[in-house]
Structures are given as C-alpha cells and as structure tokens.
Class I SAM-dependent methyltransferase (Thiolapillus brandeum), 234 residues
Amino acid sequence: MQLQTDSYRNATEIEIMEEVLPFEDADVLELGCGRARWTRTIAENFPVKSVTATEVDKVQHEKNVQINDLPKVQFVYGGAEDIHLDDDSVDIVIMLKSLHHVPVPLMGRALEEIHRVLRPGGLAYISEPVYAGQFNEILRLFNDEKEVRQAAFDTVKEAVSRGDFALKDEIFFQSKSEFGTFAEFEDRILFPSHSDHSIDETLHDQVRLAFEPHLGPDGASFINPHRVDLLQKI
C-alpha cells in the first residue's frame, strides 16, 4: 500500500464507485454523509436495497432527517467508531473523505466496527484526499490535515496487516472541485457546522487572498488527488 502516487486517473468519485462496488440489491452504509450529496446520488442512481447514512455533526444530521424524498435512506446520528447496526448486516460500507475526521485514538475502533457490520466478503470503500495540490495549499492555511490523513492511512494498513481485510484494490484518481464564489467556499469549507477552525480576521484575509487568484468568470476550480482503498472482509 502507498500513500500517494505520481500518476492519477481522471474520474469522479461516483464513476469509481460504480466501477468497483456491487450495488445490485445491496444494503449500504455510508459513514459521515455530510450534506447527503453522495447519499442521494447512490440512492437515486444505483439499484441498492437500502442506504443507512450516518453523520456525527448534529446540526447537519438534523437537516438530513428533514429529507423526505429518499425512501430507501435512513439517516442516523453517530460516528464510525460506534455503529448502531447488527453484526453482518451490510454489504457495502462507504467512507468518503471521512476517516481522517474520526479522532485519531478512535480510528482503529472505526475499522473494527466496519468489519463487524459487514457481511462476510463485504466491501469497504474508503476514499481519502491525498495531501497535495493547490486546494490543499489553501486548506492547510487554516486546517492542516497532514497528520490525520497519515493516521487514517496507517489505520487502514494496520487493519489489512492484522488480517481483518484483504486489500482488493487501491485506486488513485483526481477530480475537480468547484466554487462559484469565495462565499460558497466559506460556507462549505471555511465555516462548516461540524468544525471550528478559529479563524480570526487576519487568517480570513490570508485565506481569501490565496483563494482569489483561482477565481474566474465561472468561479474557482481545483484538481484534487484522491486515494481509494477497497477492502474486503475476511
């Protein structure tokens, strides 16, 4: 296993998931669903049986439970280290840029819980951002994730090394993130309800000045590298 590579394929997250995950009649667990963007995409575009979508941010979870047009989806409040599902009850577990948000001392427990709830042979799709790229250079001004991303990678390696999972595939891809305005960047990244980055006026100006050169008539876009570890329960 490797943390990053020199070669990334161009793809979207949903294209990678469609390629490697057997969604047909599957019970899916998404850990850390955020604003339920990918939850909706999975529930509406793939022939899944059910989706359980968890979120540890209570403010966002309360917004998610107001969604009433996704009959296959159940929204649950809670973290990956304490999954309120039965043993051997899901076919697929998905973590999209969420493992590194689990407190480092609890990351190992999160992988144990994923192993517990997966049916034998079930798959865990763990997608993490690679610590590189122009967007990362802006992000690290107020939220340097180098250490927690490394910890997330090490946790996955340990779970494979001890024989809980087989590494079925490791995929490196790059995709585009877009922001229409700096205000949108503030809402989605700088001041999310799940985190307090303690941004004072000086730091706010520094981030804005780093962001603005990327703005054009159609907003700002960034090419971001990602790594997917596709694990199979043994």
User: Anything to note?
Assistant: The helical segments are 13-20, 37-45, 58-64, 107-117, 134-139, 146-161, 182-190, 201-211. The mean pLDDT is 96.
